[in-house]
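Researcher: Please predict.
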Amino acid sequence: MCTSIPGALLLDDVAPRTSKAVWDALPQSSQVFHGKYARNEIDNLFPAFDPKEPGAENTAVSPIPGDVCQFTFTSNDLKTASHGNEAHSDTGEVHTIVDLAVFYGRSNLLLNGDTGWVPGNVFARDETLTFSR
């Protein structure tokens, strides 16, 4: 069963833990960024909003247009110099960061040159995305 949210459907049948964690944390807001390396992605970063991370479910390393993914990183994961983030950019305290991303085009490959594959939990689909040049 899929639960409707504006513009997207929660995939709570294949990603129940992730869907619940994100749903229970709404509303959220933060700065939106264009993905540097995944290609056709917009994402935003949040402090962990669930004390128990959902773990891997319905993962993808090549999301398709309309996929809405959740990633969990530590602050150490995101301060690699190869990604333009300086090692001294925070207090040195390690904390959990949740990345929520919407993919809007094809040919996405979630591969980090420093750490390898970066699978995301596909927990929703947005069938309403339209873009034109």
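Model: The mean pLDDT is 83.
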